[in-house]
Amino acid sequence: MLLLMPRGFGAGMRGAVLREIQCDPAVRPSEIGVTAQDGLVILTGYVGSRGAKVAVERAVKRVPGVRSIANDLHVTSLGEQTDADIAREALHRLRNNRAVPFRVQAVVSDGFITLDGTVSAVHQRLAAEGAVKGIPGVKGIANDITLEAPQGSPLQAADERSSPWLV
Q: What is the pLDDT of residues 106-120, one digit of tens each?
């Protein structure tokens, strides 16, 4: 049995929704996530006003084949920092701090930053935390950066040579 789906279902529907949203000058589509499947469209992300949220919803309703909309868009107040804003600023600060290696990553969730990765010196770990500490909107920082064990350190080699247990 062959089922004919209306134009705009699946990946085509997602593209149609994105095109319709982009046509609205009140909306910044780069901060809106769209998922579409079987006539259901899920909207996630941030908009600057209640009017923009309604405008996005109206745009989605105009797309053929849309049967249901989950509008999970959040309205940000003036000056409020989103997780995307915080992550962008954390990336900028970590990149521009010469003491922080590229292996350090920042994950932002609900205003909290978690730093992870590996560094070769304690000052690098502290520099990463210091770099993201003053970002507006940050509620807390978890520094999960690990310190690499030094490879063949002189102290380790001296201990091994003087050990009575080594043959």
A: 999 989 999 999 999
